[in-house]
Every structure is written in C-alpha cells, then in structure tokens.
Design a protein that fits this description.
The chain is an all-alpha fold and 150 residues long. Among the domains are: 47 residues; 37 residues. Helices cover 57% and strands 0% of the residues. α5 packs across α6 and α7 runs antiparallel to α8.
Length: 150
C-alpha cells in the first residue's frame, strides 16, 4: 500500500526544525523591546474612536472641519473612517455641511416656491444651498419657472 508523500503526508510536519532556525528565532526575539508602554498599546488597539484620539486631536479635527476641510481629508489625516469622523463632529455639536433637507423643510420649500419665491431666497431661509433646494423641487415634481434672462 502506497500513502501520500511530502506536504500531503501526516508524518511530514513532525520533524523538529533545524537548530539554525531555532537560534535565529531566539536572536529575533531578543531584539524585541520589552519596555513597551501597556497603556499606550491599549489605546492603539482600542476599537473605540474616543480612546484612539485625544481631546486635542478631536478639537483640531473640529477646527479643520469648520474652516472648510472636507471629511475625506479628515479621514485620511486622522486615520479613521468617515462615519467615525461624522460621529465625533456630531458629538461636539458641529453644524454639518451638505445635509439633506428634512421632510418639513422639503414641504416648506415647495410651498414657498409655489407662492412665488425664487429658489435662492428659499435656500437662504432654510439654511441650505441653491442646488439642494433645486433638487428637492425637481424630486417633488414641481414645475420650475424659467429663470430671468433665459
């Protein structure tokens, strides 16, 4: 009866590694620093964003966002995901940019437009952008008036 040979054999992995490999492994183990800071290691391993970033870093992130830096750039700079950036900004009460209009704002935008207001003043009243209000009106199937001069 012939059995498997080599890596497929059950007996192939039972040999001890050569003495040279064991010595090299011991040398490598000796080079690992033993004075690592367990508190710092725990912070770096933490899954919680609040533990990975200091209050100063979060304050810096808030300042950068408020000065106009976008969330993708913040993600890259601080090494965290977009939902994490948004969560930290939300926790600090930062007014978010490019937020969709709420249902009440959408209804108000349609009503104001149908009363004769232009899109720009509607956007200003709702604290939104021209484009956001325009998209809402189109999505709500409102017949848009021609723009002056067109």
């Amino acid at each position: 009866m012939v059995g498997p040979v080599g890596s497929a054999s059950n007996k192939s992995g039972r040999l001890l590694p050569p003495l040279e490999k064991v010595q090299k492994l011991a040398e490598l183990m000796a080079t690992i620093p033993t004075d690592s800071n367990p508190d710092r290691d725990e912070v770096e391993r933490s899954w919680l964003i609040r533990r990975r970033l200091t209050d100063e870093q979060v304050a810096e992130m808030v300042g950068l966002y408020e000065s106009g830096v976008g969330t993708p750039a913040l993600c890259k700079q601080f090494g965290i995901s977009k939902p994490s950036v948004l969560e930290l900004l939300h926790d600090r009460g930062v007014q978010m940019r490019r937020q969709p209009l709420t249902k009440a704002q959408r209804t108000r935008a349609v009503a104001l437009y149908e009363e004769g207001f232009a899109i720009k003043p509607i956007a200003a009243e709702l604290g939104s952008s021209f484009g956001a209000v325009h998209r809402v009106l189109k999505a709500e199937s409102v017949r848009l008036r021609p723009r002056p001069g067109r």
